[in-house]
Amino acid sequence: MKNVTFLNPEFFWLFLLLPLAILWYVLKHKQEKPTLKISSLKGFKGTTSLLPKFKHGLFVLRLLALSAMIVALARPRSVDISNKSNSTYGIDIVIASDVSGSMLAKDLKPNRMEALKNVASSFVKERFNDRIGIVVYAAEAYTKTPVTSDKSVVLQAINDIKYDNVLQDGTGIGMGLATAVNRLKDSKAKSKVVILMTDGVNNAGFLDPQTSAEIASDLGIKVYTIGIGTNGNALFPYAYAPNGGFLFKMMPVQIDEKLMKGIAQKTGGKYFRATNNAGLEKIYNEINKLEKTKVDELKFVNYDEKFRPWVLLAGLLLVVEWILRKTIFKSFI
User: Is 75 helix (H, G, I), strand (E, B) or coil?
Assistant: First the structure.
């Protein structure tokens, strides 16, 4: 009876009739009196038959037939359920990351850039049904990978983010946002999102961030902005060290929060401030919850009716009972 359900389980209440039927049968049997009186049983010695003792079996057959009919009325059937998830639409997301030298500041551990890469990678792994692209910017911007559903490509692109001399140093927020928007302008997705991160103020590039935000708004692209950096001072790189690394010194953290809030507000997004690793992770978790991919689950249910064997069993038991009653037990009824 594995995976068997009953369409009409209320018929099982009829089993309460069986004890009443048994009680009625017992009382009726006790009330039966002999219809023939004789003076002596000596002439019947040696002619005892076992058949009368099995006469009650006819009643048992009727009870079994009734039980089988009750089970049949309850409509037993096996259920085979299969699910199929069908994404009705996904979200196209572009992560635009500041890769200027200030992203090597050590207020996040081990530095802002590495902390960002770790959190962004976890975010990508949880976006099962979406396409994601990566844009990096400093004074200039370029697309590291276009929007794609291949998560391995996106994760590799995030892992390869680093500070180098490919881009002129500086912070061109307008350039980074415009490049991200350009990757989404032809997207057919019903929801398009840019996650724009910076740790400074707009001081480079030929595109005004407000203009880029207006273009994003016109194209229906939502921008979540994140300011990365502690409040107060942090260790910033200021020069190359003789060993090929960087020299650090304490410098004030400056983030144009008014600009970042304005971009988010204009495009229907939200501004966040990440002052430490835990805060940055919390921000990405919140964005992950805010931007949910709609998924329709199709459930296929196949029923295999099992009541027919019970009907046949009940019919067979009644036929057997009738045959026995009309033949073998006819003289004892």
Answer: coil
Token pair, residue 301, equals 């249910």
138-184: pLDDT as tens digits? 999 999 999 998 999 999 999 999 987 777 788 999 999 999 999 99
Structure-token pair, residue 149:
């559903």
Residue among 158, 138, 162 at smallest CA distance from 150:
158
Q: Which two tokens stand for residue 291?
A: 């931007």
How many CB atoms neighbour CB 203 within 10 A?
13
Burial of 33 (C-beta count, 10 Å sphere; 0-12/13-18/19+):
exposed
Beta-strand pair 4-6/76-87: antiparallel
Kindly provide the residue ranges of all beta strands, DSSP E only, lying in 253-294, ordered along the sequence: 271-274
- The answer to whether 139 and 98 are in contact (CB under 8 A) is no
Q: Using only C-alpha atoms, what is the Rg of the chain?
A: 41
The DSSP letter of residue 203 is: -
31 pLDDT band, cuts 50/70/90, is low
Task: Give the span between the Cα atoms of 179 and 183, in whole angstroms.
Answer: 7
Residue 110: is the preceding peptide bond cis (ω within 30°)? yes
